[in-house]
Amino acid sequence: MNKRKVRVKVPASTANLGPGFDTLGMALNLYAWLEIGIAEKTVVRLYGDKMAGVPADKTNLIYRVAQSVFERANEPHPELEISMYSDIPLARGLGSSAAAIVGSLVAANELIGGKLSTDELFQMANDLEHHPDNVAASLFGGLVAACCDGSRASCVRIEPDERLEVLVAIPDFQLPTEKARSILPERVPLGDAVFNVAHSSVLVAALCQGNLAMIRHAMKDALHQPYRAPLIPGMETILREAPRYGALGVALSGAGPTLLALVAA
Predict the structure, then answer these.
(1) Are strands 24-39 and 79-86 parallel, antiparallel or unpaired?
(2) How high is the pLDDT of residue 100?
(3) Are 133 and 18 in contact (CB under 8 A)?
């Protein structure tokens, strides 16, 4: 091991942005702080009310991800001292698990002297999270368009327009991603698929060009939000009414239940 202790700061993320299901992500200025160090005996310390219910032993996600880095780099599997504080609420659609995965990958890799490349870390993160949008946003920052062909993930980073700001409404209940995904149909009508491809393409083009007026027309979805709306009271009303009150566009953040609005500063 090259270092005895590493500390990282990782952003939360929002995914989908409406039509970009499992492909579009964006980092947010909401953070988790993670410190990992070599120890004689593993200790996991969790701080803040957002950590309630997270295991504080070797079943902890951060510990397990760090061990995967050591194994990949053919390093000894040491006992670790782990400390984490997070402002990212769990199971709210703000990428809490992606932030933990990315933070642990980066910190563990720094602990062994950066033996793995950033791309290797990204591939590992995608394998762990099973979709690339949140982890790409937390790892690279900004806006990302990401895809995976089944074996390899790729992404392109987009610098956000400086006028863009984000408002989020975070409900006081959790919605596990597994539950939010379980209600989605395995097959969708061709018309809905074409609708989302078109809107996602226009949204990316609008974000690249800074065409803020086009965002409200592009942030529409037919693949996941209509099916998830019954799980989130008031969601349909907010999606319908928020543009009337100044939102450039509004969408479910990730699997929810948080709702996100893009606004112009």
Answers:
(1) antiparallel
(2) 95
(3) no
- pLDDT band at 150; cut points 50, 70, 90: confident
Smallest Cα–Cα separation from 179: which of 88, 102, 257?
Answer: 257
Both tokens of residue 3? 């270092």
Residues 103-109, mean pLDDT to the nearest whole number: 97
Q: What is the spatial distance between Cα 234 and Cα 108, in angstroms, rounded to a whole number? A: 41
Residues 6+ apart with CB under 8 A from 130: none
Cβ neighbours of residue 189 closer than 8 Å, sequence gap 6 or more: none
Residues 6+ apart with CB under 8 A from 27: 11, 12, 13, 137, 138, 140, 141, 142
Distances (CA, A) of 226 to 84, 184, 235, 252: 36, 9, 10, 10
In 3D space, the residue among 240, 99, 258 whose CA is nearest the CA of residue 173 turns out to be 258
Give the three-state DSSP class for 256: coil
pTM confidence score: 0.92
Q: What angle do CA 260, 237, 208 make, to 5 degrees?
A: 35
Structure tokens at 177: 């991603």
251, 219 Cβ separation under 8 angstroms: yes
| pLDDT of amino acid 142 | 93
Residue 265 DSSP class: -
Band (168; pLDDT cuts 50, 70, 90) = very high
Return all residues near 242 (Cβ < 8 A) that are at least 6 apart.
250, 261
CB 10 within 8 A of CB 62: no
Quick check: helix, strand or coil at residue 29? strand
Tens of pLDDT, residues 114-127 = 999 999 999 999 99
Specify the residue for token string 């964006």. 26
